[in-house]
Amino acid sequence: MANRLSKEKAGLIASNYCTNGYKKVKALLGSGYSTNYANNVGLKLFDNDRVKEAISRIQAKTVAMSDYTINDCDADYSRIMQASETNKQFATAQTCVTGRARLRGWDRDSQITTDAPLDLTAEQHEEALAASNRTLDIKLSQESA
Q: What is the pTM of this model?
């Protein structure tokens, strides 16, 4: 089946997508699509092979130009976290943990809510409670020191 999307239009969509923080609707609006189309049907354009290839090319160029990858960033977080723990700068270590979680997308777990039922065995509950108490004891001992 022929690809109806031109290479130029796919490149424009990819360019807008990569320069606006990877926001699909905003990329489509910047490429000349209507709000209604961009919010509904247009999102399927990101499954188009030409758009995927164009995005991959732009991302490869960006990595080549900056020579800084997600793995490099993760390694930097690890080094900073180790140094901060050695120097007893626990707030910095905590910030590194948060940064690594955001880097990997672990901060976007939308399935866990306060309304979610808790399915723990009695043993798991005791283990979680003990871990929580240990964390509280460490924090209290740090604050009193």
A: 0.47
